[in-house]
């Protein structure tokens, strides 16, 4: 018995890298997988049948999969992808929003078209696929056919802590966390969870970054032998989050780095200051911030680092 027997999954951007690893792992545990990929370059230029190779690999290992060549930045095509899962396999249980591109440059060198395109693929793509899946999950729940729906999104260290040259990518990846936290609230009553994974691994995307090694060999992704930079290292976590057993895990952000899984904690209160005079005065406010919030020592009229 596989942990995901009878389940149907969509993995977006699954023609390469991390998405390929997720598809193979989900199929290994019994899920039937719609392998989505628009194809094209890591910058999001061109298109191709990149999904086919992942489908072939899943099938070669005894799993079931079908290709979808849709563009996740196209809202209608995301709807068609959800419909393809239902038409092909009769249902949908799991959505892994993984598709992504990079167009890195410092903000002063980044064309606005590149900013828009990166947000369209990562953020709008995650929203659109989730929108169509959520509509289906809710309709099923209302009809008395409750599905343990699972939406698993993809963030990144850049989105959680920022990264030079990645204003578009980091913005999208941070926003995906906000989207995850909100979907976790909106869909809980329908029996659906939404979590976010921050994967890692040598892929076409990391290969574009200065000083990074080449991407992992496609046929070595998810190899039995452990490699700290295998793009499939987060895939067992994704498979478990997709399972019925994981129903109590909702709205979580979990990073995967080599063999470690790191549960992240978001914005927490650092310090609160209140004001006896109620209405704040900018000058007095500044005098209190340096000492009370930032712990600086007063020297003359100014606060300076001790
Ligand atoms: N590699 C890392 O270390 C790392 C770290 C953190 C997050 N991520 C995230 O993991 C995800 C997968 O990235 P990867 O590193 O495997 O890169 P990758 O280039 O190997 O995979 C991304 C896939 O998305 C596909 N894609 C791009 N635009 C698409 C579109 N509009 N519609 C459908 N598919 C599209 C690409 O064709 C590609 O196959 C991305 O969301 C990325 O931001 C990667």
Strand order of the largest sheet: 3-2-1-4-5-6-7-8
User: What is the CATH top level name of the largest domain?
Assistant: Alpha Beta
Instruction: State the separation between the terminal residues, measured CA to CA.
Output: 62 Å
Q: How many strands?
A: 10
Distinct small molecules bound, one entry per kind: nicotinamide-adenine-dinucleotide
β-strand amount: 5-15%
What's the tally of helices? 9
Number of domains: 2
Major beta sheet summary: 8 strands, mixed
Low-confidence stretches: none
Would you kindly provide a written description of the structure presented here, covering whatever features stand out?
The protein is α/β, with parallel strands linked by helices. The chain has two domains: 8-263, Rossmann fold, CATH 3.40.50.720; 270-306, no CATH class. Helices cover 38% and strands 14% of the residues. It has helices at 17-28, 51-60, 75-89, 112-142, 157-161, 167-187, 204-207, 235-241, 282-293; strands at residues 8-11, 32-36, 64-68, 94-96, 150-154, 193-198, 253-257, 260-263, 297-299, 302-304. The strands form two sheets. An eight-stranded mixed β-sheet has the order 3-2-1-4-5-6-7-8, sandwiched between helices. Strands 9-10 form a two-stranded antiparallel ribbon. A hairpin with a 2-residue loop joins strand 9 and strand 10 (302-304). Helix 1 (17-28) packs across helix 8 and helix 3 packs parallel to helix 4 (112-142). The longest helix has 31 residues, at 112-142. It is globular and about 75 Å long. The chain starts with 7 loop residues before the first strand and ends with a strand. The mean pLDDT is 94. Nicotinamide-adenine-dinucleotide (NAD) binds next to helix 1, helix 4 and helix 7.
